[in-house]
Amino acid sequence: MVKISKREVKGIITKSNIPGVDYVINPYIGCFHGCIYCYAEFMIRFSGHKGEKWGDFLDIKKFDLSQIKPQKYNHNSILFSSVTDPYLSLEKKVENTHQILEKLLGTQAKITILTKSKFVTRDIALFTQFSNIEVGVSISTLDDDFAKLIEPRASSPTSRVLALKEIHNAGIPTYTFISPIFPGVTDFKTIIDATKYFTDRYMFENLNFRPHNTSRILNLISEIYPHLKLLYSELKTDNSYWTHLEAEIIQHCSRENLKYQIAFHHGGFSKS
Ligand code: SF4
What we know:
Elements: E1 3-8, E2 13-15, E3 23-25, E4 28-29, H1 44-47, E5 57-62, E6 77-80, H2 91-94, H3 96-104, E7 110-115, H4 124-127, E8 133-139, H5 144-150, H6 157-169, E9 174-181, H7 188-195, E10 201-206, H8 214-224, H9 229-234, H10 240-255, E11 260-263
Parallel strand pairs: 1-5, 3-6, 6-7, 7-8, 8-9, 9-10, 10-11
Antiparallel strand pairs: 2-3, 4-5
This protein binds iron/sulfur cluster.
């Protein structure tokens, strides 16, 4: 059972230290989706929920919407969202993301939306009113059954792909974030084939292991794909899988004439 609360915050648009992103907007504290690899769990430390489990709480941020000045962000980039999903199922009722977007209308900032929710299509009419916006979905696999294991409460990859198509058909620039890439499981070429007619650019990110997610990932792989156990244990000391994959992605995207960006970091394992 997720504990849902309201939280007053002073500001909703915060400076970002993500490369290429000037500001981030996280309309919620916490996230329902329950991704086993989640990199946002470190936020527990800063969320006032120390000791609780990520996914067991969600704070709806409350703020003075009149403080949002669209022109202040002209020529900057704003990402929705970095440590939550802006289109959690609760957004249907609460409309935090929707209200912030409405207040930003008129900005010349580059707005980037990233989600794992098919519900993002609700805001298509709003997206079309921005001069510089792109909307993306992240997809790790097209296998809805495997996705249910790694992202249990997110929309299925099949429905994310359909949402992306609908957004593209409305004339909105789109991107597919192929992330995280699970070695031996994620088939990036199949994902490209399923999305390339309605994706303007691709991003790729490797699976990153953190102390909090490593055993969850390794246990699942051992159970579902025991033949991959050795590969996953080798990843701890050997980056060559990622090096080869990166070369393969470059070759494939060049051959297909696709716009792409590769964000492989840390060689996979990190202590923090
Ligand atoms: S959608 Fe993002 S923030 Fe939410 S659980 Fe998944 S990885 Fe974490």
